[in-house]
Design goal:
Blueprint (H helix, E strand, L loop, with lengths): L1 H32 L10 H54 L7 H22 L2 E2 L2 E2 L13 E2 L2 E2 L10 E3 L5 E3 L4 H5 L7 H14 L2 H54 L3 H26 L3 H5 L1
Antiparallel strand pairs: 1-2, 3-4, 5-6
Helix pairs in contact: 1-7, 2-3, 2-6, 3-5, 5-6
Length: 298
């Protein structure tokens, strides 16, 4: 009877010591790592929450990165459109000065050359690329939208589609522009042809042709500024989208933290309790080892 009882006490004491030692070791890990979960089996529900929220954070981070990329691209696009507007305005000003009947041939040639200079500036701007993507070639953006042979600019080489990027689960933003929508639109000739014709008219002193060219420049100006307005609208919306994404990320990270992490004060308190429980289990085991047969016969 004594042997059975003593063995039972010994096994129970050993089990208590092992259990409290494991709890103490787990509490020490929590203090050192700041993590409540060391493995999924510690709390399967919390582990699943942590995994779900980490996936959510990765998804939100991708949208945030896309938001930053769109912002960078559109700022370049906005700058280029401003340059095109400046070139059109310069051509308008020069054409207006060429509408005088008192200019000499040399003066007309100088004005015509400045109109052609504006054309060259627009050609360089419309072929702008950013990180390997031509901004004004639509979706077919691996090649320049316009090429030039001598002084002759080609027809539009891109397509009418634009590249859209998801900046949230519900919003997209265009990061390219179809160049012909601003260079020609519904007009009978593109802007390059208009500038060529205008330079020719200035050289010849052809007032009706100069007037017609200036009307086309005004239409081109309106097309470019409309496109720039659209870019500006998207740019102005991006900070709000990013703020919402930041809120989503903070909320998701908070839920992840609640599931996976533990406060230092809580971890230290738990470790202290686990240490006290282990010391108590060891003390009880020591007391049980001193029990004699005489103690059971009393």
């Amino acid at each position: 009877m004594y042997r059975v009882t003593h063995n039972t006490l010994y096994r129970n004491s050993l089990r208590d010591i092992q259990s409290t030692a494991e709890a103490f070791a787990r509490a020490q890990q929590q203090v050192s790592s700041g993590k409540r979960l060391q493995r999924a089996s510690d709390d399967p529900a919390a582990a699943a929450t942590g995994l779900r929220e980490r996936a959510e954070i990765r998804s939100v981070d991708r949208y945030r990165q896309a938001n930053d990329s769109v912002d960078s691209r559109l700022r370049v696009t906005d700058t280029v459109l401003s340059d095109i507007v400046t070139s059109i305005t310069s051509a308008q000003t020069k054409a207006a000065s060429g509408r005088s009947t008192v200019l000499t041939a040399e003066q007309r040639e100088a004005v015509a050359l400045e109109v052609e200079g504006a054309k060259q500036g627009i050609f360089a701007a419309i072929n702008t690329s950013y990180r390997g993507v031509y901004l004004f070639a639509g979706a077919d953006n691996t090649a320049p939208p316009y090429t030039k042979t001598g002084a002759t600019v080609s027809a539009y080489q891109g397509d009418a589609n634009v590249v859209q990027v998801d900046i949230s689960r519900t919003s997209t933003a265009a990061i390219t522009v179809a160049g012909d929508s601003i260079m020609q639109g519904s007009a009978g000739a593109d802007l390059f042809e208009t500038l060529d014709a205008l330079a020719t008219a200035v050289r010849a002193g052809d007032m009706p042709a100069i007037d017609a060219g200036m009307i086309e420049l005004e239409r081109a100006f309106n097309r470019v500024t409309a496109a720039q307005s659209g870019v500006g609208t998207t740019l102005s919306a991006l900070p709000g989208e990013k703020a919402r994404l930041d809120d989503l990320r903070r909320a998701s990270d908070s839920r992840r933290s609640q599931a996976e992490e533990i406060s230092l004060a809580e971890a230290i308190s738990e470790m202290t309790r686990a240490q006290q429980a282990q010391e108590a289990a060891i003390a009880v085991a020591g007391t049980n080892q001193k029990t004699s047969l005489l103690d059971y016969l009393r």
